[in-house]
Amino acid sequence: MTKQAEWVAACAADALRPEEVRRLDHGGRTFVIVRSPEGDYFAMDGHCSHEKVHLADGIVDGGIIECPKHFGTFDYRTGESRALPACVDLQSYEVKIENGIVMVKV
User: Fold this and answer.
1) What are the CA-CA distances from residue 5 to residues 8, 59, 65 (Å)?
2) What is this structure's pTM?
3) Which of 2, 25, 1 is nearest to 33 (CA)?
């Protein structure tokens, strides 16, 4: 039986500055939430697909999050791998703001 997706509270919407990343651990999994310069929120898997390093420690700039270990990059809006050594896309997740809280559907 497939597990049903659920909405999980990640953080207060105003606690995240533009191009800031926040880590979310839930159900034995890790995710990252990023706020774009335009004020939109995005979520994706929280470990680099290359060596499973936490992306929450990475640099965010221009729609890209960079892994802090080997500098592979991902488009934080889609999870798409953009630069080696990361070559496997990450799963992205639906995000909504509810009562000032960033909610992620995992």
Assistant:
1) 9, 29, 25
2) 0.92
3) 25
